[in-house]
Write a structure and sequence with these properties.
- The chain folds into 2 domains: 7-134, Response regulator (Rossmann fold, 3-Layer(aba) Sandwich), CATH 3.40.50; 167-391, PPM-type phosphatase domain (Phosphatase 2c, domain 1, 4-Layer Sandwich).
- The radius of gyration is 40 Å and the shape is rod-shaped.
- The protein is α+β, with helices and mostly antiparallel strands and 394 residues long.
- Helix content is 41%, strand content 23%.
- The longest helix has 56 residues, at 111-166.
- It has a 6-stranded antiparallel beta sheet, covered by helices on one side. Strands 2-1-3-4-5 form a 5-stranded parallel beta sheet, sandwiched between helices.
- It contains 9 helices and 16 strands.
- α5 packs parallel to α6 (215-239).
């Protein structure tokens, strides 16, 4: 594990012993430096930076214990092996307390014992350096991660602010129509979106969209939806083509836009236009479930309709459905996340339950919020969106 060409520094005032140790260790593949006393050894150490030091304990000028202290003062991790003929227990204890890697007694009957001690000390030093490097890398990675998380949080906060500012006012009343919505994201940002606005003096438009996936990437598509619908309305007004502002054409326009952007995202949507002069609702379905629920005091039912998801198929076609609106009604649009809140073993069971819940809630958003327990939700697997438009409800 250690370097096979590690450099060793032998410090011993006995020339014969020093030469014998050096010759053996060089034969074992090490590069060996030598010094005859502690002072000279410190100079060599500072100049050559060996990987390991072997020193005698009893030396003139600077003895082995003082040598270890001075090496420690340099704040290096170089292991030191003491080889001494003094054999005093207190010296051995002090050497080890100061951080010596090993303490061997002269004379060494078998120099293989020294070689084994050297290799073991080098292995430990290598592991210590590797652990230190890993710790430094981990600390650096943690700092970078914290910086990235802070930046991500800033981006999320900015994205949430943009998304919230795009949503229409709730509740909103226009003539005798009332609109109200609630969106509960499963993450910080939502892939569900609602909008309603006046087209002209006679018509009001609305839609609910559920973007595939979750999180920021899906939330950004809601920004794109808002942009595309707003731009289409603006261009229609400028070109004087408002009579053709049909829900099916809006869905087709969004379908082309998403395909051209190549975002890998699609949307399920319900869009509608209320014509006040005729009291008719024109709507179009883009692969969305559950279907809108129409409530009146006399009857509650799903609207009919079908269509492909928006942003998946170039050949997708969307069709308009028309119904006459009751004088007293509500229309509830929901994203499919609402189905996760309902009891039932199958999708059909859940869908059969929805109209009854809307009816029990009197077709009102506050009643549905209570029925679904929206005030007490924990972590949800999907975003939840509710849009309720109504007229003449008590």
């Amino acid at each position: 594990m250690h370097k096979t060409s590690a450099t060793l520094l032998i410090i011993d005032d006995d020339d014969v012993v020093r030469a014998s140790l050096a010759a053996y260790l060089e034969d074992s593949g090490f590069h060996v430096l030598q010094a005859a006393n502690g002072s000279q050894g410190l100079e060599v150490f500072k100049a050559q930076a060996p990987d390991l030091v072997i020193c005698d304990l009893r030396m003139p000028q600077v003895d082995g214990l003082e040598l270890i202290r001075r090496i420690n003062a340099l704040e290096v991790q170089t292991p030191v092996i003491v080889v001494s003929g003094a054999g005093v227990m207190s010296d051995a204890v002090e050497a080890l307390r100061l951080g010596a890697a090993d303490y061997l007694i002269k004379p060494l009957a078998d120099l293989a014992v020294l070689e084994h001690s050297v290799r073991r000390a080098l292995d430990r030093a290598f592991l210590r350096l590797e652990n230190q490097r890993y710790r430094e890398e981990l600390e650096t990675a943690n700092r970078e991660l914290q910086a990235s998380l802070s930046l991500l949080q800033e981006d999320q906060n900015a994205g949430r602010q943009v998304q919230m500012n795009m949503l229409p006012v709730t509740p909103w009343q226009d003539t005798d129509f009332n609109f109200a919505h609630q969106i509960i994201p499963s993450l910080y940002l939502s892939g569900d979106f609602v909008d309603y606005f006046r087209i002209d003096d006679n018509r009001i438009a609305f839609y609910l969209a559920d973007v595939s996936g979750h999180g920021a990437s899906s939330a950004f598509v809601t920004v794109l939806l808002k942009f595309m619908t707003t731009r289409l309305l603006y261009e229609s007004r400028r070109a004087g083509t408002l009579p053709s502002f049909k829900p099916s054409r809006v869905l087709a326009h969004i379908n082309r836009g998403l395909l051209n952007c190549k975002l890998g995202k699609h949307v399920t949507m319900v869009g509608g236009v209320i014509e006040q002069s005729t009291n008719r609702l024109t709507y179009s379905i883009g692969g969305h479930l559950p279907l809108p629920v129409l409530y009146s005091p006399e009857h509650t039912q799903y609207l009919e309709g079908r269509g492909l998801p928006v942003g998946l198929f170039e050949e997708a076609e969307y069709h308009d459905q028309e119904i006459d609106l009751p004088k007293q009604f509500s229309l509830t649009l929901m994203s499919d996340g609402i189905l996760d809140l309902l009891p039932g073993d199958t999708l059909k069971d859940k869908e059969n339950l929805l109209p009854r819940l809307v009816s029990d809630a009197g077709g009102r958003l506050d009643g549905l919020q209570t029925a679904f327990g929206l005030a007490n939700l924990g972590d949800m697997p999907d975003d939840i969106a509710l849009l309720v438009l109504s007229r003449n409800l008590a």
